[in-house]
Specification:
CATH class of one domain: Alpha Beta
Largest sheet: 8 strands, mixed
Low-confidence stretches: none
Number of helices: 20
Helix content: 25-40%
Strand content: 5-15%
Bound molecules: FE2/S2 (inorganic) cluster
């Protein structure tokens, strides 16, 4: 005898002839929904981060229509709902401060409503991880549709990439190699269509990780936002989520350790952002999966970077899509991946790459001609970063990956901004720039300021890279020999707080080491003398965040949000 079919969660809201069912249905009917859509079909929430203040998510209401078509076709009932939206380029002090707030919003919005499955529609740097963190804590059947990248930027007949070329152009202006008029003109050519940054920044990194983890349909990561095939993918996703509800294929069944390891490997192969580290650690924390900072080195450290996209390489994500996209990338590195990891499609992930061809060997490089061998994110440890720090070798200068030099300290971001263009700044190209006060608590929000500008006096001499160390993050579109996420951060009493100008520091990225070269006695004296900074945030979300945020090596989630609470809500509102 077949097992009795489990009653859908939504029936507790929209089923029955009692007062509560009347209230839930009646108010929904003011949108013109007929009786029969409340007949017990799966109700699918489309969790949308659409906002005109998040330009890379501004087309998501259109994409939601594609999802709805698929849900209706499969016999479901789609309902779109908004959650906070975090526009990376628009928010101060940093969108990262609000990632955990979005995750709370998503978690509670999903749990509070009578839905059976969720489509996460998002795509800017923090919207994808924030949505996944929240959804993981509820654990309904869940699938992702990403925004997709903008079309390639174009200026003066050349391709220009979001972020990456901004940093290059602004350094060129500082070096007197580019006029301000040219700089302003490039601005209009960079962002030519809806979609996320079209470099391998954090948005496409996270979309790539999502696809490699089997959390979306294949090709989701790289198809341009305006490509008709993305609308078709949204439609297919809508169909699939209804099936997932019938199969009770919950997020926790996809968020396995193997899926995370595939995500780490894919992140290395695409030359993905260091930001993926904090986000994946936070998602793993919600899902209760045993992934730690060292896994990024252990699993991804030796993986070659084969995707030749900015900031590590020269192409853009539109090119990656036409070269075969993530399925083709995964096919090239299939010997490294767990082929049997589960997916939202209900098939093993190996089906995602089966038959996928590479159509341009310069965009997706063969394994015997990678962009960089052993290019995964490296984890650094040592007396300067007892809980770890990270560096992205594929975006660094090879000659600086092992380097010793004197430190020059910026105590805060304001200190850096005030001094960096000083013609008398006492630095040489061997100096190691150190920035404090930019970690989760310090900024607050762990801003993307770790790729400090090169001091003007050195830029003018042609210096384009130096070793830089901070407790900050950096934009996924940025490049350079930049040590990030030093943990614990300076404001939490990490050893970064005690470094002084003139101290010598040794970085050995290949050996995974980062050390402050002072005597043990001096080290302990300074640590004992350290005083925590005054707590400036006395109300609202800032206070909650400051008092509960975890350090970068734990994903910078709020401590009380780690784990999950499930989807049950017993009490009615009336
Ligand atoms: Fe949203 Fe880059 S600013 S993806």
């Amino acid at each position: 005898m077949s097992e009795k079919k489990k009653e859908l969660r939504s029936r507790h809201w929209y089923g029955g002839t009692h007062k509560d069912g009347f209230i839930h249905r009646s108010w929904m009917k003011n949108q013109g929904f007929p009786d029969h859509v409340f007949d017990g079909r799966p109700i699918i929430g489309i969790c949308n981060t659409w906002s005109e203040l998040t330009p890379c998510n501004s087309h998501l209401r259109v994409l939601a229509e594609g999802v709805k078509r698929g849900v209706w076709e499969a016999g479901g009932f789609p309902v779109e709902f908004p959650v906070s939206s975090l526009g990376e380029t628009q928010m101060r002090p940093t969108a990262m401060l609000f990632r955990n707030l979005l995750a709370m919003d998503v978690e509670e919005a999903i749990r509070a409503h009578g839905i059976d499955g969720v489509v996460l529609l998002g795509g800017c740097d923090k919207t994808t991880p924030g949505q996944l963190m929240g959804a993981a804590s509820v654990d309904l059947p869940t699938i992702v549709v990403s925004s997709g990248p903008m079309l390639n930027g174009k200026w003066k007949g050349k391709d220009i990439g979001s972020g990456t070329d901004v940093w290059k152009f602004s350094e060129a202006v500082r070096a007197g190699e580019m006029s301000l008029q040219e700089f302003m003109a490039a601005e209009s050519g960079m962002s030519r269509s809806p979609g996320v940054c079209m470099t391998m920044g954090t948005a496409t990194t996270m979309a790539s990780v999502v696809e490699a983890m089997g959390l979306s349909l294949p090709t989701n990561a790289a198809l341009p936002a305006v490509d008709a095939r993305r609308m078709a993918l949204a439609h297919m996703t809508g169909k699939r989520i209804v099936e997932m509800v019938h199969e009770d294929l919950r997020l926790s069944k996809i968020l396995t350790k193997k899926n995370f390891e595939n995500g780490i490997i894919a992140n290395a192969a695409v030359g993905g952002s260091t930001n993926a580290v904090v986000h994946m650690l936070a998602i793993a924390g919600r899902a209760g999966v045993d992934i730690c900072l060292d896994d990024f080195d252990r699993v991804g450290g030796q993986v070659p970077c084969i995707v030749n996209c900015m900031p590590s390489g020269k192409y853009l994500i539109e090119d990656l899509a036409y070269a075969g996209g993530l399925p083709a990338v995964m096919n090239r590195i299939r010997h490294l991946l767990h082929p049997d990891a589960p997916t939202v499609f209900g098939v093993p992930i190996s089906k995602y790459w089966e038959g996928a061809e590479v159509y341009n060997d310069d965009v997706i490089r063969p394994l015997d001609n990678p962009l960089r061998a052993g290019a995964g994110i490296r984890v650094l440890k040592g007396n300067l970063a007892p809980n770890g720090a990270v560096i992205k070798p594929s975006a660094a200068s090879e000659r600086l990956l092992a380097h010793e030099g004197p430190a020059y300290i910026f105590e805060t971001i304001e200190d850096l901004k005030a001094k960096i263009d000083d013609p008398d700044l006492p630095v040489t190209e061997d100096t190691i720039l150190v920035l404090k006060g930019c970690g989760p608590k310090g900024y607050p929000g762990m801003a993307e300021v770790g790729n400090m500008p090169i001091p003007r006096r050195l830029v003018e001499k042609g210096v384009r890279d130096m070793v830089r160390i901070s407790d900050a993050r950096m934009s996924g579109t940025a490049f350079g020999t930049v040590v990030l996420h030093v943990s614990p951060e300076a404001n939490a009493g990490g050893p970064l707080a005690i470094v002084k100008t003139g101290d010598r520091i040794r970085l050995d990225a290949l050996r995974g080491e980062l050390n402050l070269l002072i005597s043990e006695e001096e080290f302990q004296t300074r640590m004992t003398a350290w005083q925590p900074p005054e707590q400036k945030w006395q109300r609202g979300y800032y206070k909650l965040y400051y008092e509960t945020v975890l350090q970068a090596d734990k994903g910078a989630d709020l401590d009380f949000l780690v784990g999950k609470s499930g989807s049950d809500v017993q009490r009615e509102s009336h």
